[in-house]
Write a structure and sequence with these properties.
- Chains A, B: This is Class I/II aminotransferase.
- The structure is a homodimer.
- By secondary structure, chain A is of the alpha/beta class.
- Chain A has 2 domains: 137 residues, Aspartate Aminotransferase, domain 1; 218 residues, Type I PLP-dependent aspartate aminotransferase-like (Major domain) (Aspartate Aminotransferase, domain 2), CATH 3.40.640.10.
- Helices cover 41% and strands 16% of the residues of chain A.
- Chain A is built from 13 helices and 14 strands.
- Chain A has an 8-stranded mixed sheet with strand order 2-9-8-7-6-3-4-5, sandwiched between helices. A 4-stranded antiparallel sheet of chain A has the order 10-11-14-13, covered by helices on one side. Chain A has a two-stranded parallel sheet with strand order 1-12.
- In chain A, helix 5 packs parallel to helix 6 and helix 5 crosses helix 9.
- The termini of chain A are far apart.
Chain lengths: 389, 389
């Protein structure tokens, strides 16, 4: 039979992940598998007011075709916030509005990655980043993620011995681990990459969701030309609106990314861009974020307390300072895929570690989400998990 | 210097088109260059009602993450409409909601086209399709578009002598020419392609905008597995919402397209999907479309009358039965790019033919849009165009 499909989709076997996700959707299961924000983060009433204001005031503009780079006032707001939070020297021209920050991954692949190019990733790595980059048929180079960030020796050797196009990181409350890079490691990584041509992605969908400790400056964002930041309103306002953004000071890269976006979807939904901008300028965004982080801290604390109380001592896990996930290690010789099967029978679900690695099968690690269950449910779910270990 | 960008973006030189489009944005120019629907097609009041109803009734669903394939009732509506208009045997499972039908081009490239694969296109062809497919580095095979559709001898020889992955067509009111495939040619093309493994795209953003003659069945849409239809609400409700769709009866292809979409943007804006569905079920869509087509007929008639009256006899042009564009040929030895420069000095703009071809430079053809200017402005613009010929 003639093969009509492209190599890129044929080698992307996502059936394992689909099977897992379908199991987590069984009724009355306690699911720590998803990555859904708690509905508390949706400012529904205020957003409805913003939408009506926009429809009233902006007339046919939100219905018509619009510019590919995105709504200028929203881009200006994003640039101003980078300036305010981190003192970064960026302008609205350095910002591209994306259809969710997921689209940023696709655009970066399009703009940079030829078949066979080398893409360095954290190990473990956000699984949708692996899937998206995989469509550009690169060679993945995994670099171990430690408690305070990438292993520096591995990073240095990898960048020295290879022509690495892209280094993908999630420096704050990483997906899947919940880990955050230390200030020292950020500085050390900057020193290592600035001697190379490798483009660094700092994907930061969770950065606003810090419930402990202090915000840290980006590794290279706003400083280096070979640097791209991703951000999102999905975790603080609404994922359904699909409004993310990326930031780079490289004019040339921005030009290619805008071209790639034009081919991908012309531009992002206009009403959502206007409405989010209206919301941000007419409401107390900081207070809204504080409400979310207070809840997530409580949920995270509940999960950690339950894990300490109910799980066997050989199980270790991360203690996030923010974000939505924590990461457990069941210990030597235990496959979390096997545990997953028993767990779903007991009506509790998580994501086994395997799909977060580019080169490991049968891992003993697993990802737990705490943002979408109340503390009581979290305790019950951890008890169920304990019962199958 | 080390080249960090991908081959695909480096070979995509869109500066010519950017330069042209920037010239058409000069103030007080009469622009026939764009492809904007007339604001009359935006049901702003009714849409605002739909949005408020959705926000009231669907609570947090429209704010949360959602399924990649799209909102089921909207997919069902699209399938039902195909059934009603063309008797097609399709279900909601055969429909994928896309972020504008532009995204369909990207997803089809992702799912099918390896570097060097052969992609057959109409000559002339919708320029954004050329640009989008070009990012997958195919070999383009242009097939002449005649008044009643593709040249059958060229099509047959092209498909016979080459392993063609994809054949891209716009059978109704084609962009850029405004031409519509005859019933006979549709049937003949179906007979030719059904013997091959070539996947046929029928891109149909304008199909609802018929102001003369009768709707014709698709070439292969709803009949063949190796067939994909694209549709859109951009030309009948709002391009700013970015809601398009595609339809294929191939389960395997649909699986790959959903996977590709998940990597591209996870899913399309949820509020827009719900609101469009609510609009469609609570308003008279046919009456709304009739209002648009009545206006476009009047504008098209005005342009044709002015062209007959003011342009020299050696200029020939198409007479569309619907859609948004017509196509003029200035005659042997005249470059429309040269005419374009003189035209913009006289404050009238169009798109020269060159970017619509994969293999022709210095063409004498040009595209004129009539949907976004009133008849008086159209007459004045054609007079200005006549003055530089």
């Amino acid at each position: 039979m003639v093969q009509i499909y492209s190599d890129r989709v044929l080698q992307a076997d996502s059936s394992f992940i689909k099977d897992i996700l379908s199991l987590t959707e069984v009724e009355d299961i306690i699911s720590f598998a998803g990555g859904l924000p708690n509905p508390i983060s949706f400012p529904m009433k205020e957003f409805q007011e913003s939408i009506n204001r926009v429809l009233q005031n902006s007339g046919d503009k939100v219905f018509q075709y619009s510019g590919t780079q995105g709504y200028l006032p929203l881009r200006q707001w994003v640039a101003d916030r980078y300036k305010k939070r981190f003192g970064m020297d960026v302008t609205a021209d350095d910002i591209l509005i994306t259809t969710g920050s997921q689209q940023g991954l696709d655009l970066m692949g399009k703009a940079l990655v030829n078949k066979g190019d080398k893409v360095a990733v954290e190990s473990p790595c956000y699984l949708a980043a692996i899937q998206t980059f995989a469509l550009f048929e690169p060679e993945f180079l995994p670099i171990s993620l430690e408690d305070d960030g990438l292993n520096l020796e591995e990073l240095e050797a990898t960048l020295k011995n290879n022509d690495v196009k892209l280094l993908y990181t999630v420096p704050n409350f990483q997906n899947p681990t919940g880990l955050t890079y230390s200030k020292e490691k950020r500085e050390a990584i900057f020193e290592i990459i600035k001697k190379t041509n490798t483009v660094l992605i700092e994907d930061d969908p969770y950065g606003e969701l810090r419930f402990e400790g202090e915000s840290l400056p980006y590794i290279a964002g706003g400083k280096s030309e070979n640097s791209v930041l991703f951000g999102s309103f999905s975790k603080t306002l609404s994922p359904g609106m699909r409004i993310g953004y990326l930031c780079t000071k490289s004019k040339e890269l921005m030009g290619h990314l805008i071209g790639a976006k034009q081919s991908s979807d012309l531009h992002t939904n206009v009403l959502a861009q206007y409405a989010i901008y209206d919301y941000l300028t007419n409401n107390d965004y900081e207070a809204h974020i504080s409400k979310i982080t207070a809840l997530y801290k409580q949920q995270c604390d509940a999960m950690i307390a339950a894990m300490e109380k109910y799980l066997p001592a050989h199980v270790t896990f991360t203690k996030p300072e923010g974000g939505m996930f924590l990461w457990a290690d069941l210990g030597e010789g235990i496959s979390s895929v096997e545990v997953f099967k028993r767990a779903t029978e007991k009506k509790v679900a998580f994501v086994p570690g395997d799909p977060f690695y580019t080169n490991i099968k049968g891992a003993g690690t697993l990802r737990l989400n705490y943002t979408n269950s109340d503390p009581e449910t979290i305790v019950e779910g951890i008890k169920r998990l304990a019962s199958v270990l």
